[in-house]
Design goal:
globular
């Protein structure tokens, strides 16, 4: 049967920065991004080669007041860790604004490797109309409770994005203005999303197959007898890899990104090996 949520209804957002446009972001564009039908790259400066999507919330006449826009625009134009949290918030708003008919929105960075076809089955049992923030592994933080680790990417339902849309700009500004520091974590985008989820009454769902490290990490930390490259298979012999069809990895460098894509492409099309 066809998947409940086709890739045409899953939007992907990749956050990058100008210094990574030609290496990490280019590697994403040349590999797993080929399987993406909806979404965009988001950065801190326009570019002639990489299609950087402008943040709709910051456009004149956009659905945010001028003061919020000015505060957030200042952070968007910066290329530092502190600016990542508001950029992730703006990216989620933008993905939903540009694709309101989409069911799910994946938010990640330029060092995430994603297998979109492996992500689809993980969403089958979930209702995209509900307010859901999904991902894995699940972390816990004082005053926040459960939240999905941002390193492996976070998936938001259409219900979450719709409910959060009018809160994103004021929430991001308040977090930057001191609310985040009260949680002893600043900027900590994933924890900020966890607090936002609590504010709007959303639930957190843990998904398997989303990994917060690179493939070799799991092999090397599972058994000294297992060679590093074996972790690409994601079989049961590597217990730290959570499933045989990994959906995401983190901290993946450009060369590894291309090797992983080559592996996954050949693995899903055995005829290519002949």
């Amino acid at each position: 049967p066809p998947p409940r949520y086709p890739l045409s209804r899953i939007a992907f957002g990749v956050l990058t920065t100008e210094s990574c446009y030609r290496n990490r972001a280019a590697a994403v564009k040349d590999t797993w991004w080929r399987d993406v039908q909806r979404g965009g790259f988001y950065g801190d400066a326009p570019d002639e080669e990489l299609p950087i999507t402008p943040y709709m919330l910051l456009e004149e006449g956009g659905p945010a007041d001028e003061w919020h826009r000015e505060v957030l625009r200042e952070h968007v134009e910066r290329a530092d860790y502190l600016s990542s949290m508001p950029k992730f918030m703006l990216m989620l708003f933008d993905l939903h604004y540009r694709c309101p008919e989409c069911d799910w929105f994946f938010v990640g960075g330029d060092d995430n490797f994603v297998a979109p076809g492996h992500l689809q089955p993980l969403l089958e049992s979930l209702n995209s109309s509900d307010r859901i923030m999904a991902g894995g592994p699940i972390g816990r933080h004082v005053g926040v409770g459960a939240y999905p680790s941002g390193g492996s990417g976070i998936i938001f339902s259409r219900g979450f994005a719709a409910a959060a849309s009018r809160h994103l700009a004021p929430f991001a500004v308040s977090w930057l203005g001191g609310r985040g520091q009260r949680y002893l974590c600043h900027p900590c985008g994933d924890i900020a999303f966890g607090v936002l989820a609590r504010d709007i009454g959303a639930r957190v769902e843990e998904l398997p197959c989303l990994h917060g490290m690179w493939p070799e990490y799991f092999s090397l930390h599972s058994s000294p007898a297992v060679p590093a490259c074996a972790s690409l298979v994601g079989s049961a012999q590597q217990p730290r890899v959570t499933c045989p069809r990994p959906a995401t990895f983190h901290y993946v460098q450009p060369r590894s990104m291309r090797l992983l894509y080559h592996f996954f492409t050949r693995h899903r099309n055995p005829a290519a090996q002949q």
